[in-house]
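Render SH3 domain-containing protein in 3D.
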Amino acid sequence: MRRTRWTSASVVAASAAALFATGMVMAPTASADAFRCGSFGSDPQAWCAYVQKAPSGLKVHTKPSTSSTTLYVLPNGTKVEVDCWTTGTSVNGYNIWAGLYTASGPRYVSDYYLSTGRVQNYVPRC
Protein backbone atom coordinates (compact mmCIF):
# COMPACT_ATOMS: atom_id res chain seq x y z
CA MET A 1 0.00 0.00 0.00
CA ARG A 2 1.37 3.38 -0.99
CA ARG A 3 1.16 6.16 1.61
CA THR A 4 0.51 9.71 0.60
CA ARG A 5 1.87 12.77 2.37
CA TRP A 6 -1.56 13.32 3.95
CA THR A 7 -1.68 9.76 5.28
CA SER A 8 1.79 10.13 6.81
CA ALA A 9 0.87 13.49 8.33
CA SER A 10 -2.29 11.94 9.79
CA VAL A 11 -0.27 9.12 11.37
CA VAL A 12 2.17 11.62 12.91
CA ALA A 13 -0.67 13.80 14.22
CA ALA A 14 -2.48 10.79 15.71
CA SER A 15 0.73 9.59 17.38
CA ALA A 16 1.36 13.02 18.89
CA ALA A 17 -2.22 13.18 20.17
CA ALA A 18 -1.81 9.75 21.77
CA LEU A 19 1.37 10.86 23.56
CA PHE A 20 -0.37 13.93 24.97
CA ALA A 21 -3.41 11.89 26.00
CA THR A 22 -1.28 9.41 27.96
CA GLY A 23 0.71 12.17 29.68
CA MET A 24 3.95 11.27 27.91
CA VAL A 25 4.95 14.79 26.99
CA MET A 26 8.60 15.26 26.15
CA ALA A 27 10.78 17.99 27.63
CA PRO A 28 10.99 21.20 25.64
CA THR A 29 13.92 21.55 23.32
CA ALA A 30 16.70 23.34 25.14
CA SER A 31 19.23 25.57 23.48
CA ALA A 32 21.92 23.97 25.64
CA ASP A 33 22.12 21.29 28.30
CA ALA A 34 22.94 21.75 31.95
CA PHE A 35 26.63 22.33 32.61
CA ARG A 36 29.04 22.18 35.54
CA CYS A 37 28.89 25.40 37.56
CA GLY A 38 32.61 25.63 38.23
CA SER A 39 33.44 28.63 40.43
CA PHE A 40 29.88 29.98 40.13
CA GLY A 41 28.26 27.19 42.17
CA SER A 42 28.34 26.08 45.78
CA ASP A 43 30.51 23.20 44.57
CA PRO A 44 32.53 23.08 41.31
CA GLN A 45 30.77 19.80 40.45
CA ALA A 46 27.27 21.28 40.85
CA TRP A 47 25.02 21.60 37.78
CA CYS A 48 23.94 24.96 36.38
CA ALA A 49 21.50 26.11 33.71
CA TYR A 50 20.25 29.35 32.19
CA VAL A 51 16.75 30.81 32.33
CA GLN A 52 15.42 30.89 28.78
CA LYS A 53 12.28 31.86 26.87
CA ALA A 54 10.30 32.87 29.98
CA PRO A 55 7.83 35.48 28.67
CA SER A 56 8.00 37.76 31.74
CA GLY A 57 10.95 36.19 33.52
CA LEU A 58 10.99 32.98 35.56
CA LYS A 59 9.04 33.03 38.82
CA VAL A 60 10.82 31.43 41.78
CA HIS A 61 8.37 29.64 44.10
CA THR A 62 8.40 28.21 47.63
CA LYS A 63 6.97 24.90 46.32
CA PRO A 64 6.84 23.22 42.88
CA SER A 65 3.49 24.78 42.10
CA THR A 66 2.35 27.83 40.16
CA SER A 67 -0.10 28.57 43.00
CA SER A 68 2.61 28.69 45.69
CA THR A 69 4.14 31.98 46.82
CA THR A 70 6.31 33.71 44.22
CA LEU A 71 9.45 34.97 45.95
CA TYR A 72 11.10 36.78 43.05
CA VAL A 73 11.49 36.70 39.26
CA LEU A 74 14.66 35.79 37.35
CA PRO A 75 15.24 37.42 33.95
CA ASN A 76 16.13 35.37 30.87
CA GLY A 77 19.85 34.66 30.70
CA THR A 78 20.24 34.29 34.50
CA LYS A 79 22.51 31.40 35.54
CA VAL A 80 21.10 29.20 38.34
CA GLU A 81 22.43 26.22 40.29
CA VAL A 82 20.10 23.22 40.01
CA ASP A 83 20.17 20.98 43.08
CA CYS A 84 17.42 18.47 42.31
CA TRP A 85 14.22 17.86 40.36
CA THR A 86 10.66 16.96 41.27
CA THR A 87 7.20 16.97 39.75
CA GLY A 88 4.67 19.73 40.26
CA THR A 89 2.11 21.88 38.49
CA SER A 90 2.16 21.43 34.72
CA VAL A 91 3.59 24.37 32.79
CA ASN A 92 2.83 24.19 29.06
CA GLY A 93 2.23 20.43 29.41
CA TYR A 94 5.51 19.79 31.27
CA ASN A 95 5.39 19.00 35.01
CA ILE A 96 9.11 18.79 35.91
CA TRP A 97 10.37 21.42 38.36
CA ALA A 98 13.96 22.20 39.32
CA GLY A 99 14.98 22.70 42.93
CA LEU A 100 17.47 25.56 43.06
CA TYR A 101 20.35 25.82 45.48
CA THR A 102 19.98 28.93 47.64
CA ALA A 103 21.45 29.86 51.02
CA SER A 104 17.93 30.68 52.24
CA GLY A 105 16.46 27.23 51.61
CA PRO A 106 14.71 25.36 48.83
CA ARG A 107 13.31 27.32 45.91
CA TYR A 108 11.56 25.91 42.84
CA VAL A 109 11.19 26.91 39.19
CA SER A 110 9.51 25.23 36.26
CA ASP A 111 12.16 23.31 34.36
CA TYR A 112 10.28 24.23 31.16
CA TYR A 113 12.14 27.57 31.18
CA LEU A 114 15.64 26.26 31.97
CA SER A 115 18.37 25.14 29.58
CA THR A 116 18.70 21.79 31.33
CA GLY A 117 17.64 19.54 28.50
CA ARG A 118 16.42 16.57 30.55
CA VAL A 119 17.22 17.59 34.15
CA GLN A 120 16.55 14.06 35.42
CA ASN A 121 19.78 12.95 33.71
CA TYR A 122 21.90 15.37 35.74
CA VAL A 123 20.64 15.79 39.29
CA PRO A 124 18.82 13.57 41.82
CA ARG A 125 15.15 13.75 42.65
CA CYS A 126 14.36 16.20 45.50
